[in-house]
Amino acid sequence: MPELPEVETVRRGLSGLITGRIVKEVTHDTPKGFPNAQKDVEEFLLGAKVTDVRRRAKVLLIDLSTDYTLVIHLKMTGQLVYRGDAVFGAGHPNDSLIGELPDRSTRVVFTFEDGSHLYFNDQRKFGWVKLIPTLEVPNIDFMKKVGPEPLAKTFSADDFKTRFTRRPKTSIKAALLDQTVVAGVGNIYADESLWGAKIHPLRLVNTLSTQEFKQLYQELRAVMNLAIQKGGSTDKNYVNAEGKRGSYMDFARVFRREGKPCPRCGTTIIKFKAAGRGTHICPYCQKS
DNA sequence: CACTTGACCTGTCCGC
DNA sequence: TGCGGACAGGTCAAGT
Q1: What amino acid positions of A are annotated as catalytic residues?
Q2: Which whole-number Å values give the CA distances from A8 to A47, A54, A151, A208, A281, in the listed order?
Q3: How much is the pLDDT for A8?
């Protein structure tokens, strides 16, 4: 599921819901990387207080008072849903896109001292959960390789263009999806931003003009900011920390809109495969 | 080496 | 209805 806007939406929700809570119990069916050591769970997770919830790229970082951090990647179908008690808690089941928890895709259940729960669900089991010292988070493989945050205030159009010089002969779509170029872009926002900038996804990186990179930079930031404002995109699985859907798909211009008219020119949107992924374009606006 | 293609998993949808 | 195949928001390892 989640790309940067979805993970950021989960982060914001979780931050308000779990910060300050103390972990009392953890049950799990050993999702990838967890627990790296049962001893660590007992020593650095049980009894720990949540001090902060951060995000880097598509990864969530739940900092603990023990100076350990839960590092969580939701991959395609991961969900992190908080449930308070049945009567007064946040995210009453009736408000939710999903039903009673735990359910058959629940992999980890964190129980807090006040009796509330945080559920990690992951239908396809691609996601991972690691418990590592906070100071070592920047040293894990993913963090060492991942590119800059595209929404950072200091990240300029020039910076954006320069990042792509490392992938000169690949398609612009493959480069956008490459997390070492720029962090957080996935299939939805790649298609949406390429449509916005009127660039065909299969154009090779070294054929784009400076002006086109500038357009793409602006469109990517605009589309991601809008998506955060709308609480992310729910196509199927994605939900926020309260189990509720995001509404960006109501505003999507090309993604999953094949057969419908381009909102700019009316030409029928088509779908094909690019960089191994389903790809949506307006064939009139985005010429190869 | 740079780039593209499978593999990882489960579930759903679509055509025969 | 049943069944096979394609496909799904991501990232690696293994291929070419």
Answers
A1: 2-3, 58, 277
A2: 26, 9, 11, 30, 26
A3: 98
Q: Is the CB of A105 under 7 A from strand B?
A: yes
Q: What share of chain A is helix, strand, coil (3-state, %, to 5)?
A: 30, 25, 45
- Check whether the bond before A35 is cis (ω within 30° of 0): yes
Distance from residue A87's CA to nucleotide C3's C1', rounded to whole Å: 45
Q: Report the distance from CA of residue A87 to the C1' of nucleotide C8 in Å, as an integer.
A: 35
pTM of the model: 0.96
Distance between CA atoms of residues A71 and A265, nearest Å: 44
Residues of chain A with pLDDT under 50: 86-94
Radius of gyration of chain A (CA): 20
Q: Give per-residue pLDDT as tens, A7-16.
A: 999 999 999 9
Nearest nucleotide from residue A7 CA, by C1' atom:
C9
Query: Which residues make beta-bridge pairs with A268?
Result: A261
Give the rounded distance of the alpha carbon of A212 from its chain centre: 25
Q: What is the pLDDT of residues A137-173, one digit of tens each?
A: 999 999 999 999 999 999 999 999 999 999 999 999 9
Give the pLDDT score at A85. 66
* CB proximity A278–strand B (7 Å threshold): no
Residue A145 CB in 7 A reach of strand B: no
Would you say the C-beta of A166 is within 7 Å of strand C? no
Q: Is the minimum distance from the CB of A32 to strand C below 7 Å?
A: no
Angle among Cα A10, A13, A19 to the nearest 5 degrees reads 115
